[in-house]
Task: structure prediction
Amino acid sequence: MNKIIEKEKIDIESMIYEIRGVQVMLSKDVAKLYHVETKVLNQTIKRNINRFPDRFCFQLSNDEIDELSSRSQIVTLNKSNNLRGYNIKYLPYVLTEQGIMMLSGLLKSDVAVKVNIQIIDAFVKMRKYFANTINDYKILVNHENRILELESMFDKYKEEKVNKIFFEGELYDSYSLLLDILGTAKKEIIIIDNYAGKKLLDTLKDFDKRIIIVSKNISDLLVKKYKSQYHNINFINNDSFHDRFIIIDRKELYSCGASFKDLGKKCFYIGIVDKKEYLHEILNNIFN
Result:
């Protein structure tokens, strides 16, 4: 019998479905494996119905047949290959693992005994598969929830750290925050500051990102000397801005109340601007 199953390449695992939270096999598939007619198998169940409680065997509902058909494209029981609309009297039976074991004892044939071993092995294998799948899903869900939690914590930390008022004398902390903001850039930094000068260029000369400085007062001589040695900054003369801004990768906009050369000398505020329309308007003002 093992050779027959191997020769026909019958995949028992593919005949096992999860319905009502338990693993089951269609009576017609079991009959096929046992080499008996489906009618004979169903009659055996009906004659011994007291041996087959619902946890061993039950009939599918029309909705379950529709769902199973759409999931597995199974070959159905009537000639038109359509299980929809069946009277409850003719709805197919399904057997659980316990039902298979009970059935093999009733049929009492060498074929049933040999096939039954393989069916039970298949149930065990599929049970492990479903268990691992559920565990993997739970792990994935927990992992995703943890990521969302960390992202939320990071956003809160970022908001608390970035949206901050610095007071007179906090030279290092304000300068450190500036470097933290600039360090988040992956490709590009845009700085708008009408009082950009040597101190800002000294800060930016070792950055390996594309940098654009928008200013109306920066010294032409300073720009010329800088560009003769360093090539990471483009300068745009624009007289449209009063306040200072930083734009990171054209995605995040920061407002800064103090010129970058005066960070920490007097009280000022620096913070992220959430409204994207402001970011787009400023970019349009710079490049159009």
